[in-house]
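2024-03-11 09:14:02 INFO queue: dequeued item protein-tyrosine-phosphatase, len=154
2024-03-11 09:14:02 INFO validating residues
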Amino acid sequence: MISVLFVCLGNICRSPMAEAVLRHQIEAEGLSNQIQVDSAGTGDWHIGKIPHEGTRLLLDSYGISYSGMTARQVSASDFGSFDYLVCMDDSNERNLRALPGGREASIIKFMDLLPEEETREVPDPYYTGNFEEVYRLVNLGCRKLLDKIQQEKL
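2024-03-11 09:14:37 INFO prediction written
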């Protein structure tokens, strides 16, 4: 089983959106028995909470399930459990690298999947309120990540 972990700050906006979108794309490709997806936050403020209302409303509008998703904090054990660790911005990458084992971990910056985009970090809609723009980036980036996984691992 190939595994992907998306990481953002609080695990209620960007990373759960990416988790839900990639799961949806995986299901559409019939790959659910080969790829699993999770998300986590570098902070602990929202542990146990469901995704942010803005994320839920947007995913609902696209018919994408987020059922059963609750926020959790990333841990050092995640480095050995996931094939792909994908962080949403530079701050999250620094926080991951500060964990035991983080300096050696292979971490992908989400926006490196989208070199054609001007922005180099996925904006945090918790602060910007722009969930549609985040969805646009997440949808495109998850498609590229799924293509990458299929080329490298399947």
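2024-03-11 09:14:37 INFO annotate: The chain has a mean pLDDT of 96.
2024-03-11 09:14:38 INFO item closed
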